[in-house]
Each structure stands twice: as structure tokens, then as C-alpha cells.
Amino acid sequence: MDFSTFATQFFNTVSDTMKKTLINGLGLLLLVFLLANCGRKSERSDTTGWKYNDQKWGGFEKLDYDGQETGPNLVLIEGGTFTMGLTDQDVTYEWNNVARRVTVSSFYMDETEIANIDYRQYLFWIKNTYGETYPEVWRRALPDTLVWREELAFNEPMVETYFRHPAYDEYPVVGVSWDQANEFCKWRTDRVNEMILVEKGIIELTPDQKNESNFNTEAYLVGQYEPTARKNLKDIRTGGERKVRFEDGILLPAYRLPTEAEWEYASSSLLGNQATSKDELITDRRIYPWDGNTVRYQKRNKYQGKMLANFKRSGGDYGGMAGALNDKSFFPSRVRDNWPNDYGLYNMAGNVNEWTADLFRPMTSTDLADVDNQELNPYRGNIFMTKKIDPETGTPVQKDSLGHLIYELMDTTSTALRDNYKRPEVYNYLDGDKESEVEYRYGISTLISDKARVIKGGSWADRAFWLSPGTRRYLEQDKSSKTVGFRCAMTRTGNPIGNDEDGNTFKKRGKKTKRKY
């Protein structure tokens, strides 16, 4: 942001009395500055010499972009290379996560698991928006509170209270399937982007949206949602106003579930073990998301001996003895309890297992070991979709009755000539066998299906082995559990190390040719 823009915004926010003071005391100085600024030449393209942001030159815009904003509850996870997979003995002898070297791009991760209060707000919005016309949408989003029931345990109080009672507001939501978690991510994306536009004074706040007339990020960007505008952006090309575009960088990327690689990388938080020399040296691997080989705090201070995570210590021991409770939780604990890792993320070990985006395959790590392009952001689960386009207008077809754009699988005729992929459904690519007609026959020869999704992290009901970032299990994506919750992630665009940092730039050698126009 240049100084004149900053001064204008500041001037518009102060009181009338302050404005008079500024005008009387600094009027001459401001006038001189503004006149000088108006006479300054516009920035030009290095390639064509044409002026940017100038209506006379066509109005092509070049933004003074400050970098991606950090969304609510997110933490920037600086990417890097790490050894993905088990770093300790494979005591289950499953060999489903053989160690291999991969790299993960920078991304954002939720500081905490999604809490009951967060999910109840989601349900409140759905009921208010769709409840009268489409009550099934609300019913479909409800968590399964019956997951607390056991044949030989008295858990009925948890069935009644855990999700709804205010005592559990800050506890992680459970009983949510992978499908439901993904729908939550989509809803959160739209609410956060709507909040951004409202707080920037671009659109009016409209909490009582109904049916398809609700703010949807994609529908807004393609012109299929028209909010009540307060003050749109200036259109340099026409001299009038225009809506926010994707190219403005104002709206955030989508919230989503983290990939398995992202989750494991964030949980390991190896930056805490990086040598102080910053020479790409890691002092040691980690068994848990913290230093050491124990689940108790080791330093000699008031915290010494305390449990660092919420888990089951041994058979029948879920919380310790009265008067000396170890993790002080018999069920899940609050989302900001227990020891945060070096990224500041809470409960990346214990409390609840967490959904990841990946489809589970036991041999993924070994079959992809020799495929170079799978070493960067590895992920199994791709289904390549595209917006459904009206052939006559070439624009997306009308959104559905819930306000969402309609997607369809990419046409195989458009992938036939590609070198990077040949079909849109590629989640079974190199999935453990070299034969071309392999399938996972669920319930016949295996319990793994095309709906099995990776869960990681261990829970309040698991032993310490499952707290290690490299361990992995699976659950069908349409099922839920009292030990499984989730947190969201978001893609980082641009500079991987933050908005205030630079890349590897060096002092320019030689003199840049000065243009004369």
C-alpha cells in the first residue's frame, strides 16, 4: 500500500474534529504531497512499456499486493522436506507407512480441532438458511451422538450432553463423518470470505439469507450471486465500479481437510529440532510431536511429570487416580488443553483422531517411492472435476437450489492427449498391485474400500503408540466415531515463508537501462 492510499484511508476513519485539526495544521503539506503524487508517472510493464492502472492505456491492473491474510484460527506452517512414515518400531507389523523422503509446500493449519460450539454454529446457519424449504440438509449435517453408546458401558450421559451442553462447548466435535467434515469446510470458506467483504465495507451484512440466495464464494465470483453492495472496487478500465474478482487476492482460498502428508508434517513440527545454524540440519527425528521419548513433561519445573497429551495410559487407565489424575480427562479434553507443538498446534497427538483428505492404501508409500513427481505434496484421492459449462454461453450453468455451482467429472476426451494424467478418477493409481484389473473388494477379501480415509493422531481411548505422527489407520468416509474429529487446512499462495519475508534475492549486478518515454 502506497503512502497516499494509507493517508486517504486514515483520514476517512478519524473524527470530524480531528479532520479539522489535520486540515488546519497540515493542509499545506498534504496539498503539496498530493500534487506531487498526482504528477508521478504510472508504473510500466517491463515487457511492453505500457502503463499499469491507467484508463488511457486500457486499464490493465497491477495490484500492490501485501500477501495472503491469515484466516481465523489458522497458523502458517512453513513447508519443507521430511521423512514421512514411521520413525519408531512398527509394533503392529502392518508395514503400511514405510519411511521415505518427501517435501510439503507451505500451508495453513487450524490451531485447534473443530469444537462443538463451532459445529453448532454451522448447524444454526444451515437451519436458518435451508430449514424451511430443505430440512433434510440440516438433518444430513447432524453429528451422530449415538457413537457414545457401548454394549457394556454406561455412556448414555455423553449421548445426551457431549454435543449440546455448554460445558462441552470447547471440546472437539466427534461423531462427524469425513463427508460431513468436508461440507463444514465448504461452509466455513463462504462464511470467512463473506466476513472479509463485509469488514472491508464492500457488501452489506445479510445474516437472514435463504435457500439459493446465500453467499457462496464461487457463485459470487462468476456473477451468480448479487449481494447488497456498499462500495465496490474502482474499475480502472471503465472509471466506474466493479465487484471483487479472484485476481484481487482479497478472498481466501478454500478451507479443506489436510492431506495425510500435511497433517504428519505439521504434527512432527521438526523446525523445533532444526540446528541453530540454519544449514538444513535437523538434530534428530521425533517419536512424538514434542522432543524426547516420553509422554510426560521432563524439565525440572512446576510442570514436571505432567502428561503432554490426552490418551489411555494402559488397559483400564483413562485418566489416572483420584487426587493425582494424569491427563485429567476420561473422555476428550478441551481443544486448547495439553501441550502445543512447535508450530503452536494443539492436540496433534491424542484427544481425538483426525480425518485427513487421503484415501487409505496400505502400500502407497512403497509403490510411489520410485515416482519422482509424487515426492512433492504426495496425496492419494484425486478426482479431477470441472465446472459444468453451458455450451452456448461458455459460462457455468445456473447454480443449484442450495446456491452451489455444479461440477462434473472431466471429459476423458479432454485428457486423452495429456501427458500428466489420462483419466479424471486417479485415486487407484499404483495402489498396491501391478495388475491393471485390481480392485479392493470390500467385505469379501479386504476391509479397505474406495471410501476408506486415513485418520491420524491417536485419541483419548488409544495407547501411546498411536500418538506418533507416522502411525495411520482408516475409517469409511460415511462413518463416524466417538474418537474421531477433524481440523481444517488451507493452501498458502505466494511466498512460502510469510508476507514479511523475501525470497533468495541478491544485490543486482550492473545498471538497469533507464527507459525514456
Could you explain how this protein is built, in words?
This protein has 517 residues and is of the alpha+beta class. 21% of the residues lie in helices and 11% in strands. It has helices at residues 3-13, 16-38, 116-130, 135-141, 156-161, 178-199, 217-221, 260-268, 364-367, 412-415; strands at 74-77, 80-84, 100-104, 107-110, 233-234, 241-242, 255-256, 320-321, 324-325, 353-359, 385-387, 407-409, 452-456, 473-476, 484-485, 489-491. β5 (233-234) and β6 (241-242) form a beta hairpin. α3 (116-130) packs antiparallel against α4. The longest helix has 23 residues, at 16-38. It starts with a helix and ends in a 26-residue tail after the last strand. Mean pLDDT is 86; it is low at 31-40.
> What is the averaged pLDDT score?
86
Number of helices: 10
Strand content: 5-15%
Measured as a percent range, the helix fraction is 10-25%
- How would you spell out the order of helices and strands? HHEEEEHHHHHEEEHEEEHEEHEEEE
SSE class: alpha+beta
Please state how the strands of the largest beta sheet are arranged side by side. 1-4-16-7
Please state the overall shape, judged from the principal axes of the Cα atoms: globular
Distance between the termini: 26 Å
Model regions low in confidence, pLDDT < 50 over at least 5 residues: 31-40
Describe the biggest sheet? 4 strands, antiparallel
Overall strand count: 16
The gyration radius over C-alpha positions equals 27 Å
